[in-house]
Amino acid sequence: MAPSGADRTAERLALLPGIRRAPTPKLQQFMLAGFLDPATCAGLMAQIDRDVRPSTIADPNGDEAFRTSTTCDLDHRDPLVRAVNARLHDITGIPLDHGEPLQGQRYDVGQEFKAHTDYFDPHGADWETYCAVPGQRTWTLMVYLNQPAAGGATRFLATGKMHQPETGKLVAWNNVRADGQPNADTLHHGMKVRKGRKYIITKWFRERAWPWADGELV
């Protein structure tokens, strides 16, 4: 099985013009303003508005207000989605079959995603369901599609870094440490939108190839 290349992603991202790396040893994290142009962002937002559903979490924790956003499973056959997805894979150097389908999320006023990590808990109830074949989530790439009038920042608790939504801005981070173990310092909070509406897209990458990709990624 071909390796994912995720261990070299940080080196690749660091070479992108204009990218900034978070000055912390706690996690590998990068920010790049203007990664997507406004027209592309607008097209993705229209698709999200058309196909949203309530967001879910892998291991329910009893808090019904833990994640209150809505989610859109973007159509990976759509030309715009395909182009954005290919670009995300290109900058990471991770093969297409190691990526989850691209998702969009929408946050209305008062909605949030409380402090969480993107990796799966190896001891969680749904580990076998989500990770038996593709393995752990390695990198997360998130792009803000707009800038709400107030609120909606993403806060990383271990570093105190607050990422403010800006149209087209990319935020990328590695969910695992060099030894392959989950990095708890990636704990982050999608904070409440206070005014307006927030849109993002999220791309997650896996250790191994996804079965869903067979016959789909052409």
From TrEMBL:
Keyword annotations of the record: Dioxygenase, Iron, Metal-binding, Oxidoreductase, Vitamin C
Keyword Manganese set for record: no
UniProt GO molecular function: iron ion binding; L-ascorbic acid binding; procollagen-proline 4-dioxygenase activity
Keyword Nucleus: no
InterPro entries: Oxoglu/Fe-dep_dioxygenase_dom, P4HA-like, Pro_4_hyd_alph, Pro_4_hyd_alph_FE2OG_OXY
Domain of life: Bacteria
Record protein name field: Prolyl 4-hydroxylase
